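Our working data are protein records whose layout never changes between entries. The record below serves as our worked example for the rest of this section:
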Amino acid sequence: MADNIVVDRSTPTPLMAGRMLRADAVAELLDIELKRVYILAREGILPCVRVGRQVRFNRADLEAWASKGGTGYPGEAQ
């Protein structure tokens, strides 16, 4: 019965609207070390989506996060 599945692609979802970014692209975009990207994602500071063991980032979410001033890492010098 899988032949009868209909997927509506007329309204783009965030995943369809643009490619998700990998951690290395985020590190370059934010001009920080790759290790820092993973730490910030793990701590819930950078908005991300987990796909199994991989981490992906929505560019629009990152831009919104940055435009609000981002979030500092606890204990880090300001």
Notes: The chain has a mean pLDDT of 80. The beta strands are 49-51, 54-56.
